[in-house]
Amino acid sequence: MTTTIRPDSLAPGDVAEITRNDASLRRFLHGLPGVDQVGAEARAAGLGTRSIKTTAKAYALDLAIRMVDLTTLEGQDTPGKVRALASKAMRPDPADPTVPQVAAVCVYPDMVGIAKETLGDSGVNVAAVATAFPSGRAAMDIKLADTRDAVEAGADEIDMVIDRGAFLSGRYLQVFEEIAQVREACARPDGQSAHLKVIFETGELQTYDNVRRVSWLAMMAGAHFIKTSTGKVQPAATLPVTLVMLEAVRDWREATGQMVGVKPAGGIKTAKDAIKYLVMVNEVVGEDWLDPDWFRFGASSLLNELLMQRTKMTTGRYSGPDYFTLD
Predict the structure, then answer these.
(1) 248-280 exposure pattern, b = at least 16 Cβ within 10 A, e = fewer
(2) Of the chain's two ends, which shows fewer C-beta atoms within 10 Å, N or C?
(3) Which residues, listed in sequence order, are joined to residue 70 by a DSSP beta bridge?
(4) Residues 6 or more apart from 173 whose CB is under 8 A from it?
(5) Which of 116, 143, 197, 263 is an active site residue?
(6) 325 in a domain, yes or no?
(7) Range of the domain at 166
(8) Quick count: other Cβ atoms within 10 Å of Cβ 180?
(9) What was the pLDDT predicted at 49?
């Protein structure tokens, strides 16, 4: 029997029906409306030119700070560096206690315990990359062990990467099942679950149509967040790609009643860039997503720029870039 379910008529039981086999999943994903490349890029560019008032800018800067996932994902990471990053997450500007803390600290799984210990009950989450980050190329048992180790160490969030080779080869069911299994591995003994962010590496997906398809695929498999990039591949996050992903979570909510978060990561370096993304969120999906629970920035270098702009608005003068700690 052929599956003919459309996104605008998706019911709770339909996901299981669609994902019973690769053929039905393929029909669904390739039945999604195509993305008008010129239109998407033009709309993203137009939203990026919006101006906001000074009071709104002050609010936007603080909101952007609260949305940052402060990240260190280098081979040279040390316990001391992770502790310093966690301290900065809690008090981004030690000289100004009114600066809000960031959303999360993102580290490799072996550093989760150190970050968790340093952050304590501050409310800043610990996120861990997993599933053979950044390539996503490993046996499934290794990916699941990677995830479980991070969760057992105390990770509140897991940032997994999909196997782009499998997706680009059309092996959609394989990608779906991997996401679903990692989601299960996020379960904790207390019955709660670490939130799962699914990284697409959009710079390798070639088309906006693929970005739309993988967004729906990840949401159907149980993603709590969909994320553009690892930050290791260029291009990383862009406004048009994020627009397509925001449209996907908007349509998913209309179809299922469920909200899914969005995280652009990589290449977002200035406060002006961050505000462009916030304007887009407000215009495309609405105020419900203007919250760290539903929108994040994966851009550690962005934090100091936000702090510099915030200081300028408060004092009327810029602080030098060396006024804040380097990440």
Answers:
(1) bbbbbbebbeebbbbbbbbbbeebebbbbbbbb
(2) N
(3) 105
(4) 19, 21, 22, 25
(5) 263
(6) no
(7) 7-317
(8) 17
(9) 86
Q: Out of 14, 156, 159, 251, which one is annotated catalytic?
A: 159
Assigned domain for 242 exists: yes
In a domain, residue 307? The reply is yes
Nearest of 187, 179, 198, 196 to residue 140 by alpha carbon: 179
Indicate the number of domains in the chain: 1
Give dist(CA 88, CA 86) in Å, integer.
5
Give the single-character DSSP code of 319. Answer: P
Q: What are the CA-CA distances from residue 47 to residues 8, 43, 176, 264, 280 (Å)?
A: 26, 6, 33, 16, 6
Amino acid at the residue 181? Q
Residues 105 and 69: beta-carbon distance below 8 Å: yes
Q: Has residue 279 been placed in a domain?
A: yes
Over residues 35-75, the pLDDT tens digits come to 999 999 999 999 888 878 778 899 999 999 999 999 999 99
Q: For residue 134, is the peptide bond before it cis, meaning its omega torsion is within 30 degrees of 0?
A: yes
Catalytic residue among 143, 197, 227, 276: 227
Considering only CA atoms, which of 84, 71, 169, 159 is closest in space to residue 118? 84
Active site residue 143: no
For the question of residue 197 being annotated catalytic, the response is no
Question: Whole-model pTM?
Answer: 0.92
CATH number where 29 lies: 3.20.20.70
Q: To which H or E segment does residue 105 belong?
A: strand 104-107
- Sheet (strand 157-161) strand order: 69-71, 104-107, 125-130, 157-161, 195-199, 225-227, 261-263
